[in-house]
Specification:
The chain has 145 residues and is α/β, with parallel strands linked by helices. The chain contains five helices and six strands, in the order βαββαβαββαα.
Length: 145
């Protein structure tokens, strides 16, 4: 299982958890972003910088992920593409995306996007919390076992 990270918006604390998990489990970890990111010196961890532009990191990950891989992303359309390829998708808040919930999540995301485009103020997600960090770490551990 290769671990891919949609790293542009991934919280630093989640990246740190992933760095430790990659070393502990000896699984390859690739961060994909349109900017350079610092990563620990490790043969298991690498960073791919994609050109700036809309969804370039998402396109790269979707093109390279294999069935059984794990992708860390908060991007619902990317998660849908990952699930379609029989890979695992996990949000930085610990929500596992799967065939049973991805359609509903994608529909809700599209609905909220439509509201925002018409001028409705929908607010954003709540601040990232210690509970989110713990939920992510717990779910990640279960997936890597």
């Amino acid at each position: 299982m290769h671990i891919w990270v949609d790293a542009d918006a991934c919280p630093g604390v989640i990246k740190e958890i992933l760095f430790r998990a990659a070393e502990r489990t000896k699984r390859p970890l690739t961060l994909v972003a349109n900017q350079t990111l610092r990563t620990p010196a490790s043969p298991l961890i690498r960073m791919i910088q994609v050109p700036g532009g809309f969804d370039e990191a998402d396109k790269y990950i979707a093109a390279h992920v294999q069935a059984g891989d794990l992708v860390i992303t908060a991007d619902i359309p990317l998660a849908a593409a990952i699930v379609e390829k029989d890979a695992h998708a996990l949000s930085p808040r610990g929500e596992l995306y799967g065939k049973e919930n991805i359609r509903e999540l994608l529909d809700m995301r599209n609905f909220m996007d439509t509201l925002r485009s018409t001028g409705v103020e929908t607010g954003g997600p709540p601040a990232f919390s210690a509970g989110d960090r713990q939920a992510f770490a717990n779910r990640l551990d279960r997936l890597l076992r």
